[in-house]
Amino acid sequence: xxxxxxxxxxxxxxxTDNIRELEQLLRQDYRRKQTALQExxxxxxxxxxxxxxxxxxxxxxxATLKEEQEQLKSKIVESPEELKNYKELMKExxxxxxxxxxxxxEKYEGYRDLVEVLPSCQ
Length: 122
Prior knowledge:
The protein is an all-alpha fold. The protein starts with 5 loop residues before the first helix and ends in a 5-residue tail after the last helix. The chain contains two helices and no strands. Helices cover 89% and strands 0% of the residues.
């Protein structure tokens, strides 16, 4: 097999050169495609990292909003009856405060009248 007849040597040499050229072209094409694929993979990894970062930010935002929602829920009166009772309690408190204020005013006026009746200490 290693000996090629003289009449075929030129053809074999041409075929060998063609094969080497094709191998070189295939290697270059392979490297080019491999590089392009690595760039795509790198971009996809970068996209995934960015998406993961955004997802984590959204998770934090979601948790914050849930906490805020729970805090707001605690401020909402669930029952109309409970609200009515609370309003009644507030009305009673206002009445008591007004009554207490009136009593203080009356006592003040009484003391003021007593002081005016007393002879002046000159």
